[in-house]
Design a protein that fits this description.
By secondary structure, the protein is an alpha/beta fold. The protein is built from six helices and nine strands. The relative contact order is 0.14.
């Protein structure tokens, strides 16, 4: 059965895809919001296929946009209920995309922004096999009333995780990055992080560079950071 969600795509520069990068957009946007990042990352990931599905629901607060689940900002349990309810739909989409490209989860990366980061972390940490990477911009690890119930099936090799956040984020405060990183560490999922100075709720050039390099390394590709950026690797 075909997936209920779909969106814009970027094919590998040449030949068959060796990696799959799936973008999960934020609340009120759609798949077009993130797909162009794939073009910027093609120099790091020339053999990757990129896809950015539109969320399944029209956004209640932005009729021209989409939402993965409703958000009122008043109910503390709505994020948890939302990621739990949306998980089967995304898992079905990922399975279909991997099969189409003849890849397994070890060649998969999930990249989320805001609400998409909540979903990327929730689903990516619960797949039957660990993805190569989870990259979350301006989001947070969502937990229910109990501590994060990340399963132990990944064994000694959990997915690589990088969280990137704006230091001046007015939508999801930057504290969410440290809280999420600490919770992941307690669940034995080592997490890198990067704070973008002066940035509100968005993605800047530094965050894009860190993200592209992180994905390349997570897929086992050789990248010379200093030659391309002149800086230190992600924290």
């Amino acid at each position: 059965m075909a997936s209920q969600i779909d969106g814009p795509r970027i094919q590998p520069k040449a030949g068959k895809a060796k990696q799959l990068v799936v973008f999960l957009h934020g609340y009120g946007a759609d798949g077009n919001d993130l797909i162009e990042i794939g073009r910027q990352w093609r120099s790091f990931l020339p053999d990757a296929a990129f896809v950015s599905p539109h969320a399944p629901e029209r956004c209640a607060l932005s009729p021209n946009g989409r939402q993965w689940f409703p958000l009122t900002m008043r109910d503390p349990g709505e994020r948890w209920r939302g990621v739990v309810a949306t998980r089967p739909l995304l898992e079905s989409f990922l399975a279909e995309e991997l099969a189409k490209n003849e890849l397994d989860e070890s060649k998969l990366a999930l990249v989320g922004f805001s609400q998409g980061t909540m979903l990327a972390l929730h689903v990516g940490l619960r797949l039957r096999r660990a993805p190569a990477a989870i990259l979350g911009y301006s989001g947070v690890l969502v937990a229910g009333s109990e501590p994060p119930d990340i399963p132990p099936q990944f064994g000694a090799k959990p997915p690589a995780v990088l969280l990137v956040h704006g230091e001046e984020d007015s939508m999801i405060p930057a504290d969410a990055l440290l809280l999420s990183a600490n919770a992941l560490a307690k669940a034995d999922v080592p997490t890198q992080w990067h704070l973008s100075a002066g940035l509100d709720h968005g993605i800047d050039n530094a965050g894009l560079l860190h993200g592209g390099l992180f994905l390349a390394r997570s897929f086992g590709l050789s990248v010379e950071f200093g030659r391309r950026s002149g800086g230190a690797p992600p924290r």
